[in-house]
């Protein structure tokens, strides 16, 4: 195949065989500084990123070390910062020039690239424009509107970026108002882990910290695209590889960051072009085939154990006896699984899985890292639990260098759950909240994100408040959600940048622009700081460094406090103004509510490397129903349960993120690591599949969801790109493909949309080029 192919005037595809990191990432960073019109002073702000005295990156949630590098950020973190500190502005004058119906024709990139919002705005139907409004008027009307609704018809969404302080207040606001309708981005992301892990090991989060990377003997890596989604982790992986730690990867796509890496911050490596190979084994599993692959590895382990001259050299019997529950059922199920079934479902050979098991059996301390490739499936909970079983077989939870490591998405998504953003009332200490703040936590379960969408479609939800996020793009089922969204009575977007969710608006609609985390937040008692929790359960302080984008912006804590005063005044004992004057008081309140995790919060948040929350499973204390670590048997190897087995022309669509995006924020149209430039409207297919359907690389196709429920779901104009992906699997980008995702096609228990296996048919378009 030619190294570089032009498939249309704006689409170029090439084989990208440079390492992740390296000069490519330096060039890309320089371009994003220039595009956002960020002068060199912007790079001074970057030096404070992820530093103990600086701000926590607004991009991913990866851990921040106690002894940071000079540049403790990656290409994508830097992009996120420059995107936020851009010099471009969306002022009231901008809205005057552009009616809402015109803006609605702009694409996601154009909307956010227009710059930072500067002023609170209210939609005016007569002129089809957003008009400036005073903050006081905005809060008063939103409060009035909310008070007129029944509490359960309002939804308080938050994207995982808002700080611990803001999130805590937001939870209290919703509960004082009378609802647990507090869905967050986690509902589309790692909710699968939050359901799977408590049943298996009694904690809702991972058990690994950064220290474990320095002590581990082997890493298993499932369905996480480290080079794009959490690039700073590449440093830990590189260090591990240099200690000869094998990395065994399962991913349908050969992702660059999992193949090789050049540390852009190591001059020697940059000059010599030396790259560190990352994965020692790379298994291109079929999408949804991980449960089968894990069963295969487990089966091979049992066989190795049986064949070993000294019993117990492979299976950790002492651990299982003392800590395990359900071994007999598990080992029986593993033995009952046929190799042919495993090979068929995983798309991997017995030999390949035995090779993985062979390495695993020889290594002492092993970590299991994973991302959306496991969580966004119909049976994702079972897959995560099967992976935990694999860890438990060799006692790999609760000792140094070993454990379970879900890689979280948004920079504080894990922390939001920790301080009460959840639709499940049982997850918050109701008695404390009553005693401390005079709020009765409603006992009715609230709506998840998927349930909120259902409510929007059926009309039972009347108001959506979004603290960050862009639900109109990030949720499934656009064809039904978007028109229903327009019928909402009230939509409020607390945002830094303009996005589609502000344009597809309700009858009464507000844009409330806020400070970003990189910005200096001045309140009555001086400059304020906030805190976030990273993927490893570590809390960090964060102090903004950049001048606010506009003098009219309010901080998120202030906006939430004002909304609370306008909506639930007299229903709590909280002195909202005092909290806003000094965020340390909010942290004291968090510490009183969750003392085990947050005692002495204000002092400890500045500890280099942050402070850890206690995670019982790390100490081998199992807060499960059995009091043990549970081997939970998956119900079946079949994960694509919405695809009839006889449907030969149906393929499984994986929706991907590119290297040029952060969720619905599209920085540019390139996906450098996958060698795709200039367009996101592509579909990656195996050569044999292209041939089978009589297509050619470069033609345009329509994808249609292959389910029969009366809803027509199609996305057109996608150009076929030949790609190294298993046959029967195709890939395209999120959010462009979200119209294909049925709302009910979600993880069975966790309700996480199954965005990594959407059954679709590929249809050639008549006017193909
Ligand atoms: N630059 C950047 N960083 C981000 C984000 C972003 O959009 N851009 N988003 C943030 C957020 S909110 C999140 S949740 C994380 C997401 O980060 P990831 O967890 O990396 O999620 P995805 O990028 O969606 O892709 C997951 C990977 O799973 C693979 N995969 C797909 N199906 C399967 C499968 O069935 N099995 C296996 N084993 N692998 C599979 C895909 O090929 C892909 O490499 O990143 C965060 N960081
Ligand atoms: N098909 C498919 N769908 C998916 C996924 C997938 O892999 N495939 N991934 C899912 C996942 S993992 C996630 S997490 C969701 C994400 O979904 P969301 O949480 O809905 O979306 P984001 O794109 O993260 O939100 C971006 C918006 O947040 C606003 N924003 C940015 N910074 C700030 C800030 O500091 N404060 C405030 N208040 N606002 C800010 C900006 O205006 C920006 O437009 O999407 C999910 N949807
Ligand atoms: Mo996410």
TrEMBL record:
<keyword id="KW-0479">Metal-binding</keyword>
<dbReference type="InterPro" id="IPR037951">
    <property type="entry name" value="MopB_CT_YdeP"/>
</dbReference>
<dbReference type="InterPro" id="IPR009010">
    <property type="entry name" value="Asp_de-COase-like_dom_sf"/>
</dbReference>
<protein>
    <submittedName>
        <fullName>FdhF/YdeP family oxidoreductase</fullName>
    </submittedName>
</protein>
<dbReference type="GO" id="GO:0043546">
    <property type="term" value="F:molybdopterin cofactor binding"/>
</dbReference>
<dbReference type="GO" id="GO:0051539">
    <property type="term" value="F:4 iron, 4 sulfur cluster binding"/>
</dbReference>
<feature type="domain" description="Molybdopterin oxidoreductase">
    <location>
        <begin position="116"/>
        <end position="493"/>
    </location>
</feature>
<dbReference type="Pfam" id="PF00384">
    <property type="entry name" value="Molybdopterin"/>
</dbReference>
<dbReference type="Pfam" id="PF01568">
    <property type="entry name" value="Molydop_binding"/>
</dbReference>
<keyword id="KW-0560">Oxidoreductase</keyword>
<feature type="domain" description="Molybdopterin dinucleotide-binding">
    <location>
        <begin position="652"/>
        <end position="757"/>
    </location>
</feature>
<dbReference type="InterPro" id="IPR041953">
    <property type="entry name" value="YdeP_MopB"/>
</dbReference>
<dbReference type="GO" id="GO:0016020">
    <property type="term" value="C:membrane"/>
</dbReference>
<dbReference type="InterPro" id="IPR050123">
    <property type="entry name" value="Prok_molybdopt-oxidoreductase"/>
</dbReference>
<keyword id="KW-0408">Iron</keyword>
<keyword id="KW-0411">Iron-sulfur</keyword>
<dbReference type="GO" id="GO:0008863">
    <property type="term" value="F:formate dehydrogenase (NAD+) activity"/>
</dbReference>
<dbReference type="GO" id="GO:1990204">
    <property type="term" value="C:oxidoreductase complex"/>
</dbReference>
<keyword id="KW-0500">Molybdenum</keyword>
<keyword id="KW-0004">4Fe-4S</keyword>
<dbReference type="InterPro" id="IPR006656">
    <property type="entry name" value="Mopterin_OxRdtase"/>
</dbReference>
<dbReference type="InterPro" id="IPR006657">
    <property type="entry name" value="MoPterin_dinucl-bd_dom"/>
</dbReference>
<dbReference type="InterPro" id="IPR010046">
    <property type="entry name" value="Mopterin_OxRdtse_a_bac"/>
</dbReference>
<dbReference type="GO" id="GO:0030151">
    <property type="term" value="F:molybdenum ion binding"/>
</dbReference>
<comment type="similarity">
    <text>Belongs to the prokaryotic molybdopterin-containing oxidoreductase family.</text>
</comment>
<dbReference type="GO" id="GO:0045333">
    <property type="term" value="P:cellular respiration"/>
</dbReference>
């Amino acid at each position: 195949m030619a190294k570089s192919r032009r498939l249309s005037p704006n689409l170029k595809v090439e084989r990208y065989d440079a390492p992740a990191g390296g000069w490519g990432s330096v060039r890309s960073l320089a371009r994003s500084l220039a595009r956002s019109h960020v002068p060199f002073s912007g790079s001074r702000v970057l030096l404070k990123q992820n530093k103990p005295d600086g701000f926590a990156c607004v991009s991913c949630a990866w851990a921040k070390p106690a002894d940071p590098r000079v540049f403790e950020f990656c290409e994508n973190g830097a992009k996120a910062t420059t995107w936020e500190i851009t010099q471009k502005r969306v002022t009231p004058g901008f809205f005057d020039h552009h009616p809402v119906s015109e803006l609605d024709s702009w694409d996601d990139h154009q909307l956010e690239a227009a710059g930072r919002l500067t002023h609170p705005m209210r939609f005016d139907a007569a002129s089809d424009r957003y008009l400036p409004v005073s903050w006081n008027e905005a809060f008063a009307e939103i409060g009035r509107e909310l008070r007129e609704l029944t509490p359960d018809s309002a939804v308080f969404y938050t994207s995982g970026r808002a700080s611990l302080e803001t999130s805590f207040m937001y939870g209290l606001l919703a509960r004082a108002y009378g609802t647990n309708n507090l869905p967050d981005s986690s509902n589309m992301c790692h909710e699968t882990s939050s359901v799977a892990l408590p049943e298996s090991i009694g904690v809702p989060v991972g058990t690994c910290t950064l220290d474990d990377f320095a002590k581990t003997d082997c890493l298993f890596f499932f369905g996480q695209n480290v080079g794009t989604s959490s690039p700073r982790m590449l440093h830990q992986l590189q260090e591990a590889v240099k200690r000869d730690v094998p990395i065994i990867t399962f991913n349908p796509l050969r992702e660059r960051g999992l193949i090789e890496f050049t540390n852009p911050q190591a001059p020697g490596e940059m000059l010599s072009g030396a790259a560190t190979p990352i994965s020692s084994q790379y298994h291109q599993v079929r999408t949804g085939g991980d449960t089968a692959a894990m069963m295969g590895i487990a089966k091979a382990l049992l066989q190795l154990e049986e064949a070993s001259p000294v019993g117990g050299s492979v299976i950790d019997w002492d651990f299982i006896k003392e800590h395990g529950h359900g071994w007999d059922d598990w080992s029986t199920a593993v033995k009952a699984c046929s190799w042919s079934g495993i090979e068929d479902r995983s798309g991997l050979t017995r030999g390949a899985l035995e090779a993985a098991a062979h390495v695993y059996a020889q290594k002492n301390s092993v970590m299991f890292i994973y991302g959306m490739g496991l969580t966004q499936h119909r049976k994702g909970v079972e897959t995560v639990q099967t992976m935990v079983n694999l860890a438990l077989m060799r006692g790999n939870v609760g000792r140094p260098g070993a454990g379970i490591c879900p890689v979280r998405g948004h920079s504080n998504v894990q922390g939001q759950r920790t301080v009460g953003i959840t639709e499940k009332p049982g997850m918050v200490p109701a008695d404390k909240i009553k005693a401390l703040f005079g709020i009765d936590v409603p006992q009715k379960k609230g709506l998840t994100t998927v349930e909120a969408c259902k409510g929007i479609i059926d009309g039972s939800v009347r108001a959506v408040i979004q603290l960050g996020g862009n639900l109109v793009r990030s949720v499934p089922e656009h064809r039904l959600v978007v028109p229903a969204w327009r019928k909402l009575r009230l939509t409020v977007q607390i945002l830094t940048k303009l996005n589609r969710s502000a344009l597809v608006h309700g009858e009464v609609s507000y844009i409330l622009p806020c400070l970003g985390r990189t910005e200096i937040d001045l309140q009555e008692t001086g400059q304020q700081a906030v805190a976030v929790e990273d993927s490893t359960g570590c809390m960090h302080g964060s102090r903004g460094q950049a001048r606010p984008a506009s003098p009219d912006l309010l901080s998120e804590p202030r906006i939430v406090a004002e909304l609370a005063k306008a909506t639930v005044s007299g229903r709590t004992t909280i002195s909202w103004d005092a909290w806003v004057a000094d965020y340390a008081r909010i942290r004291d309140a968090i510490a009183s509510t969750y003392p085990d995790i947050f005692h002495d919060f204000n002092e400890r948040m500045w500890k280099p490397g942050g402070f850890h929350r206690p995670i019982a499973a790390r100490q081998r204390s199992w807060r499960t129903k059995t009091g043990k670590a549970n081997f939970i048997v998956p119900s079946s190897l079949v994960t694509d349960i919405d695809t009839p087995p006889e449907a030969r022309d149906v393929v499984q669509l994986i929706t991907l993120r590119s290297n040029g995006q952060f969720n619905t924020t599209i920085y540019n149209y390139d996906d450098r690591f996958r060698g795709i430039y200039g367009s996101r409207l592509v579909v990656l297919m195996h050569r044999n599949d292209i041939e089978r359907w009589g297509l050619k690389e470069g033609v345009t196709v329509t994808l249609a969801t292959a389910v029969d429920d009366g809803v027509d779901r199609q996305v057109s104009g996608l150009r076929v790109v030949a790609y190294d992906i298993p046959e029967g699997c195709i890939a395209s980008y999120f959010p462009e493909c979200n119209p294909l995702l049925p709302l009910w096609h979600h993880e069975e228990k966790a309700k996480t949309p199954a965005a990594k296996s959407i059954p679709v048919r590929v249809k050639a378009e008549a006017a193909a080029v």
